[in-house]
Design goal:
single chain; alpha+beta; Dna Ligase, domain 1; Rossmann fold; 3 domains; six-stranded antiparallel beta sheet; elongated; binds guanosine-5'-diphosphate; binds manganese (II) ion; nucleotide-binding; ATP-grasp_succ-CoA_synth-type; EC 6.2.1.5; Succinyl-CoA_synth-like; magnesium
Length: 396
C-alpha cells in the first residue's frame, strides 16, 4: 500500500526522524491559515507548498512551489489545488490534486551551501537482506544518476536477523563525505530510518532529498513509504491511511471482493485461480493472437460470489472482446465454479461477448455438464489447447 508524503513524514517523525513542520490544506484559505500558524511555531518566513498525490517527480511537474509570503501562499495554493498534475510517474493523463501540504522552508540560507542527499531502505530479494542505498547526488535526477553513474550509489546490506549495526550507519554516513555535527546527525538519521522501516513493515522507505542544512541539521525534505500489504494486519491503524481516490477504481473494487486484479491494455479478459496459472493463461492468450485485458487471480477459495464479482469487474472494461475462465479445481470444486458462472451470467443479464470456460480437476465433468445444460452462450473447453482455439475463434 502506498501512502502520502505527509502521512509518511508523520510516521517518520514518531521514530525520531527530523522532518520540516507541515500542515495539510484542501483550500487556499486553509493554506493561508496553515502558513500563519507555521510562522507562529517556527518563525519561518518562507513556505513550501507540495501537492499530495501518490506519485513522485512533482517538482518537475509544477507540484512543488516556494512562497515568499502569505499572499503568495494563497496564489500558489490556488494554482496547485485542483490541478491535473502530470509528472514523469503519473502517465500523460496526470493526477488530480485534492490536497497540499504547507511546510516551513528548511533550505534557509547560511554559511555553507545546503546539499541534497539520497537515502532509501528496501529489500534486496536476491541477497535475502535489507539494503540501504545512499548517494551524495540526491534530488530530482536520482534516476539518471543510478543509470549513468551507478558507482555514485553507496550500498550497505543489513542482515534482518541481526539488524542494523552501529558501524554500518557510520560507514554510510562517512561515505557521504560528512563530518562533525552533520556526520553525527546523519548516523542518527540512518539509524532511525532503518528502525522505522522495520517497525512499520515497510517494503520501501525512500527519502529524496535528505537535506544537510547550513546548520548541519539532517532533514527529510521528501518521504516515500510503501507498506507491505501482507503485514497490514499487524498495523490496524495504518488501514485508515489508505487513499482510495489515488488507486484505480476497478482495482479498489477487486480488492474489496478479495480478488487480486491488475488491469492491462488487451482485449481478452481472464479469470483464473492461482497466480502461476494466471500467468500461464496470459501467455496462452498471447499465443492465440489475443492480448490479456487483465490479470485476475480469484484465489484458492473461489465461490459463486467471487466469480460474479470478477465477471462484473472484467465487463466494466470496454476493450474486452472475450472472457476466458481457467480454473483448476483443487480445494475449489469445478461444479461450484460452473454454478457461479451460470448464476453470474443470469444476474448480470445481457453479456454480448463469448465466454470460454476451462475447468479441470475436482468435479470437472460435473462442472462441464452444468455449463452445457444451462443453455447459455458459454463455451466449455477441456484442454488448454481447445481453450486457446476458442479464444482465437472468438476474436475473428
Ligand atoms: P518530488 O519532485 O515529488 O520528488 O518532490 P520533492 O519533495 O523531492 O521536491 C522536489 C524538489 O523541490 C526538491 O529536490 C527540492 O529541490 C525542492 N524542495 C522541496 N522542499 C523544499 C523546501 O522546503 N525548500 C526549498 N527551497 N526547496 C524545496
Ligand atoms: Mn523527491
Amino acid at each position: 500500500m502506498n501512502i502520502h508524503e505527509y502521512q509518511a513524514k508523520d510516521i517518520l517523525k514518531s521514530y525520531g526522524v527530523v522532518v520540516p513542520a507541515q500542515k495539510l490544506a484542501e483550500t487556499p484559505e486553509v493554506a493561508v491559515n496553515a502558513a500563519r500558524q507555521l510562522f507562529e511555531e517556527t518563525k519561518t518566513a518562507v513556505f513550501v507548498l507540495k501537492a499530495q498525490i501518490h506519485a513522485g517527480g512533482r517538482g518537475k511537474g509544477g507540484g512543488v512551489k516556494i512562497a515568499k509570503n502569505v499572499e503568495e501562499v494563497y496564489q500558489l495554493a490556488d494554482q496547485i489545488i485542483g490541478m491535473q498534475l502530470v509528472t514523469p510517474q503519473t502517465g500523460p493523463e496526470g493526477k488530480k490534486v485534492n490536497k497540499i501540504i504547507v511546510s516551513e522552508d528548511v533550505y534557509y540560507p547560511g554559511a555553507s551551501e545546503p546539499s541534497e542527499i539520497y537515502l532509501s531502505v528496501l529489500l534486496d530479494r536476491a541477497k535475502g537482506c535489507d539494503v540501504i542505498m545512499a548517494s551524495t547526488e540526491g534530488g530530482v535526477d536520482i534516476e539518471e544518476v543510478a543509470e549513468q553513474t551507478p558507482e555514485k550509489i553507496i550500498k550497505e546490506w543489513v542482515d534482518p536477523k541481526v539488524g542494523l549495526q552501529a558501524y554500518q550507519a557510520r560507514k554510510v554516513a562517512f561515505a557521504l563525505g560528512l563530518e562533525g555535527l552533520a556526520l553525527k546527525n546523519m548516523i542518527k538519521f540512518i539509524t532511525n530510518i532503518y528502525k522505522a522501516y522495520r517497525g512499520i513493515d515497510a517494503s520501501q522507505v525512500e527519502i529524496n532529498p535528505v537535506l544537510k542544512a547550513s546548520d548541519d541539521a539532517i532533514i527529510a525534505v521528501d518521504a516515500k513509504i510503501n507498506l507491505d500489504d501482507n503485514a497490514l494486519y499487524r498495523h490496524k491503524d495504518f488501514i485508515a491511511l489508505r487513499d482510495e481516490s489515488e488507486e484505480d477504481p476497478l482495482e479498489v473494487e477487486a480488492s474489496k471482493s478479495g480478488l487480486n486484479y491488475v488491469k492491462l491494455d488487451g482485449n481478452v479478459g481472464c479469470m483464473v485461480n492461482g497466480a502461476g496459472l494466471a500467468m500461464a493463461t496470459m501467455d496462452m492468450i498471447k499465443l492465440s493472437g489475443g492480448e490479456p485485458a487483465n490479470f485476475l487471480d480469484v484465489g484458492g477459495g473461489a465461490n459463486a460470489q467471487t466469480v460474479e464479482a470478477g465477471f462484473r469487474i472484467i465487463l466494466q472494461d470496454p476493450n474486452v472482446k472475450a472472457i476466458l475462465i481457467n480454473i483448476f479445481g483443487g480445494i475449489v470444486r469445478c461444479d461450484r465454479v460452473a454454478s457461479g458462472v451460470v448464476e453470474a451470467y443470469k444476474n448480470i443479464g445481457q453479456i454480448d461477448i463469448p465466454i470460454i470456460v476451462r475447468l479441470q480437476g475436482t468435479n470437472a465433468e460435473e462442472g462441464a455438464k452444468i455449463i452445457e445444460e444451462s443453455g447459455l452462450r458459454v463455451v466449455s473447453a477441456i484442454l488448454l489447447k481447445d481453450a486457446a482455439d476458442c479464444v482465437k475463434e472468438a476474436l475473428v
